[in-house]
Amino acid sequence: MVKRLLELIQLRNSHPAFGGKCKVESASPNRLSIAWELDSHRIALDVDLSRPCASIEYSTEEAGQSAMMCIE
To answer: What pLDDT is stored for residue 7 in this prediction?
Structure first.
């Protein structure tokens, strides 16, 4: 658990998209999506409030690549 938390902290402190614009959406009462974008950099948090589930999708250094992290 601590290792995952440290990974999240490192991602938050180093990903360029956090220097860009933030957009918050709620498609339903149980879902929350927050996305940040700066140039070609993107990171998005999707949370399902009806169950303890969240995912983070973010761009990587390689053009057109992305990675995903699930948090439960």
So the answer is: 86
